[in-house]
Automatic annotation (TrEMBL):
GO terms for cellular component: cytosol. It comes from the Bacteria. One of its GO terms (molecular function) is zinc ion binding. NCBIfam families: PRK08298.1. Belongs to the cytidine and deoxycytidylate deaminase family. This is Cytidine deaminase. SUPFAM superfamilies: Cytidine deaminase-like.
Length: 145
């Protein structure tokens, strides 16, 4: 089984466990060391302080000083609904770019098929193109040495 299918299955299994009924969502991140980190959205009564589903897994990878290679966010509307992959929001795309533009992310498709692309394909006109690549690479890799 390939990495991308493996992390989708991990997300689905976690959702089934954590949210046996009703809505459910989980993200799974894979790192270069082949570690997998799972996270969910922080539930809060004040939507203004909510965070994205992927954030916790990104923080775990960062805490453990590991380079992220893949990220997926999976949701379902209720226990009888199909699981769907959500493309990372713009904020999460920015967070993931810390590890480079080659991070592969699961994206939403019309056919609800599993598909991953690199961030550089998702954001071909990213603002960082205005800067010298050495400057950004230094910043992105300073913790990963």
């Amino acid at each position: 089984m390939n990495t991308e299918k493996k992390i989708q299955i991990r997300a689905i299994e976690f959702i089934k466990h954590r949210y046996p009924s009703g809505w459910g969502g989980a993200a799974v991140i894979r790192t270069e060391k082949d570690n997998y980190y799972t996270s969910i959205a922080l539930e809060t009564a004040n939507a203004a302080v909510s965070i994205c589903i992927e954030t916790g897994a990104m923080c775990e990878a960062h805490k453990n000083n590991e380079k992220v290679t893949h990220c997926i966010c999976v949701v379902r509307d209720d226990e009888n609904s199909l699981f769907k992959v959500l493309t990372p929001c713009g904020v999460c795309q920015e967070r993931l770019r810390y590890w480079g533009e080659d991070v592969r992310v699961g994206i939403t498709t019309k056919e609800n098929q599993l598909k991953f692309i690199e961030l550089k394909e998702l954001q071909p006109h990213h603002w960082s193109k205005a800067y010298q690549s050495e400057t950004l690479e230094h910043y992105q890799n300073m913790d990963l040495k």
